[in-house]
Specification:
The chain is of the alpha+beta class. 59% of the residues lie in helices and 14% in strands. It folds into 2 domains: 97 residues, Peroxidase, domain 1 (Orthogonal Bundle); 74 residues, no CATH class. The protein is elongated and about 70 Å long. The protein starts with a helix and ends with a helix.
Length: 179
């Protein structure tokens, strides 16, 4: 999550409008695509930051590039353009996702394992750990890490649950050396 106060304010305003209009899900999907565009096309950011291009032309460009996007998103982009805050788009998406997840009782989690998790394993991990962090469900991203040797390492925000074989061996080593 970002530390940008501006991004949090824009995200909260957009989230409240999305909730009011019952469009939280579709807007979040559009925002994730928007984030990909801004992260992969640095030239777009440079073009939109250019003082040579008038604001009206920039708005036309945004309208053309994101013509399939929700109007609330386009309006948010226009406001951010007017306030010279388009550099906060990626942070806005992250903040919106955090507000949306919080409202839905969802937490983002990274599960590090030596092999890909099956759907059943992911569901079991989600069920077991969601309650521990006060959420209904975990949205799991599985990351393959052969250095674990076995077991899993789960990260939910700042909380890490480590039941990997490498961590257990390290704890055993410290206990043997310490005694």
């Amino acid at each position: 999550m970002s530390q940008s106060i501006a991004a949090k304010r824009y995200a909260l305003a957009l989230f409240e409008l999305a909730q009011k209009n019952g469009q939280t899900g579709p807007i979040q999907e559009d925002l994730l695509e928007l984030k990909k565009v801004f992260q992969t096309n640095k030239e777009l950011s440079q073009l939109l930051d250019s003082p040579r291009l008038k604001a009206a032309k920039k708005k036309e460009l945004l309208a053309e590039l994101f013509k399939g996007a929700n109007q609330l998103i386009l309006n948010t982009l226009y406001v951010m353009l007017d306030k010279k805050r388009l550099d906060e788009v990626v942070n806005l998406v992250d903040e919106f996702t955090a507000y949306s997840n919080d409202a839905a009782g969802v937490a983002e989690a990274k599960v590090y394992s030596t092999v890909p998790l099956t759907a059943d394993e992911s569901q079991a991990i989600s069920s077991a750990f969601a309650q521990k962090v006060g959420k209904k469900v975990l949205r799991i991203e599985n990351i393959i890490d052969p250095s674990l040797l076995g077991g899993i390492r789960l990260q939910i925000g700042n909380i890490i649950y480590d039941s990997s074989l490498s961590a257990k061996l390290e704890r055993l080593k410290r206990d043997l050396i310490g005694s």
